[in-house]
Write a structure and sequence with these properties.
single chain; mainly alpha; elongated; 88 residues
Length: 88
């Protein structure tokens, strides 16, 4: 779930960055990509026999919350930029 949120927000950010560069949007996009890599690494460990269920669950929850916050911030920034373009 976290990866799909991140992929959608990265795609939206890249479309916005092609129109106009924004340092803040680049930072949020990089953060989202880091979360995507973390989620990709975490995903196979959930099937490991030596896993600690509580730790994997906590890591998954943290990754999901950060992905939701990052993708929400990215969407907000893209919406504000699009609104500013319309009024200009």
């Amino acid at each position: 779930m976290a990866m799909s949120l991140v992929i959608a927000s990265v795609g939206e950010a890249l479309m916005q960055l092609m129109k106009k560069a924004s340092a803040a949007l680049v930072l949020v996009t990089v953060n989202n990509l880091i979360i995507m890599v973390f989620a990709a690494i975490l995903s196979p460990s959930s099937d490991d026999e030596n896993k600690i269920k509580e730790v994997v669950g906590q890591q998954s929850l943290i990754a999901f919350l950060v992905a939701v916050a990052g993708s929400g911030l990215c969407t907000l920034m893209c919406a504000k930029a699009a609104a500013a373009e319309e009024t200009a």
